[in-house]
Amino acid sequence: MTLRAGFLAGAAAAVLPLAVRAQAPPSPSPSPSPDPRWKNHVHGANGVVLLPEHRAIEWELELLDGHTFKLSQYRRTVVVLNVFATWSEKCRRQQPVLTPFALAHPDDTAVFGISYHEDERAVREYRKSFAIPYPIAVERRDALLTIFENRNVLVPATIVFRPGGTLSCAWTGERDRDWLERERDYALASSGAGG
């Protein structure tokens, strides 16, 4: 899997490394959506991911099935990236929440899994046992290490992008269905794509 981030500027994108900080207490968004429903919405983008919240970035992931995921191909949808490990009990507890969430929003939300340094066979078995309908990447290089503080991949981690390709939020730890729905709604509303 390759993982790249760059600020989009016309047709060219400068490639910059990603960095993620350890979990921090939630803080209000510095730029709340014009939608009054989200005036006091709190999310974890600040203090978790060192990415600009107002510039589209590009990510590229090599998927388990051989295809390539590019964030720029999903500019009209919310993108939810879930970093997981098949051996993690927290990831196993969260997975039954992610699958129905992905199936509930096929028109405006794309969910992708990212597994770090795991045997492909174990990831395929995990996908089958949970009937995961969305694509999964298995990261074999150490690109994921560069996005986590102290070069330690934390699982589960969930990163949400708005339809325009800008960061909406990022959190480590288990997330429930209500959280996913709330962050999806926020990403849509704050991009001007949703109610």
Descriptive report:
With 195 residues, the chain is an alpha+beta fold. It has a single domain (5-19, 44-190), classed as Glutaredoxin (3-Layer(aba) Sandwich), CATH 3.40.30.10. Helix content is 21%, strand content 26%. It is built from 3 helices and 11 strands, in the order E-E-E-E-E-E-E-H-E-H-E-E-E-H. A 5-stranded mixed beta sheet has the order 9-8-7-10-11, covered by helices on one side. The radius of gyration is 16 Å and the shape is globular. The model is unreliable at 1-34 (pLDDT under 50).
Entry summary:
This protein has 195 residues and is of the alpha+beta class.
Keywords:
195 residues; alpha+beta; two-stranded antiparallel ribbon; 21% helix
Beginning-to-end CA distance, first to last residue: 35 Å
Structural class: alpha+beta
Please identify, by name, the CATH architecture. Answer: 3-Layer(aba) Sandwich
CATH topology (fold) name = Glutaredoxin
State the name of the first-level CATH class.
Alpha Beta
The total strand number stands at 11
SSE arrangement, N to C: EEEEEEEHEHEEEH
